[in-house]
Amino acid sequence: MIGLVALVVGLLLGLWLDPTVPGWVAPYLPIAVVAALDAVFGGVRARLDGIFDAKVFVVSFISNVLVAALIVLLGDQLGVGSQLSTAVVVVLGIRIFGNAAAIRRQLFKA
Amino acid sequence: MSTSPGTRRRSTRRRRSRALSAVLITVLCLGLGLGIATQVQRTRSGDALADSRPQDLVVLLDGLQEREAALREDIAESEAALRRLRASGDTSAAALGEARARAGALAVLAGTVPVAGPGVELVVTDPGRQVGPETLLDVLQELRGAGAEAVQVGDVRIGVDAAFTGVPGSIALDGRQLAAPYRIRAIGDPSTLAAALNIPGGVVDTVRRGGGDSELTERDRLEITALRPLTDPQYARPAN
Fold first, then answer.
1. Terminus-to-terminus CA distance in chain B, angstroms?
2. For labelling, which of A4, A81, B68, B218 has a CA lying 20 to 30 Å from the CA of B229?
3. Which position has the higher pLDDT, B77 or A30?
4. CA closest to A30 among chain B residues
5. Do B28 and A62 touch (CB under 8 A)?
């Protein structure tokens, strides 16, 4: 619950402040956002399943973001940056969809 | 009810870790919201090009150059088409103008349009009813010989198939009865027409000999308003 409120506050803050992104972060931000979204959906699902653990959530969130950024960094160094970014987004997208389906089943029993 | 110090310590620690995790979750979710909003605005403002990868930029540049080439080709083709159309428009406009001019000349000849211009007006009086159709025909021939371009007798326009019929005193032109005095209007060079009519032994003399009289006026501007209906030829067809 507190996470949802914080998310909304962060959205509004971002829209209001319109922060500038430093150049070295710019390529990693979209992937990091998608990875974090994956973690959040996983957390919501765990919460609905009654097995939510704050430690697991925090660790998975941070590690997701770091791994995604690392993969993009590695891809850029190897010269397959855009392809690897696409791969990461696809995999995370599939996971988000799976989690969203589980959440939907829990919430609407359908 | 008393609890042992160990249990209390454990519960205190648990409470503290709980608060810590809540703070962490809050911070992370706040960061996520901030990141989403920032990224969305960056994408919308369209300056994503600034931090795109060089490979992507090369691909973009290639695509743009290809498009530019295609568009340039389009422009060249369109310009060629424009030139072509303009040229053909010029020639067809010239042909149209020529056809219009020819149609105008033919309409004047056939008597299907009213005309105006310099010319002469001849009034032939015939108190003795002696002027015959051949006299008026002579007048017309003289006028034509002198270059009259349009002639009107009474209120009948002279065309290529006009004919005087009848007897002296009762002359018909194209079947329409003419009454003296005969008023003849002709458009052409006034002095030439007047000279042709006044020639000794010519039409004016003939009329005077027949007991009539004639009055000739040269005009700078004369209007011939009578029209001839255009008849389709029944037998004659263009041979080529």
1. 133
2. B218
3. B77
4. B39
5. yes
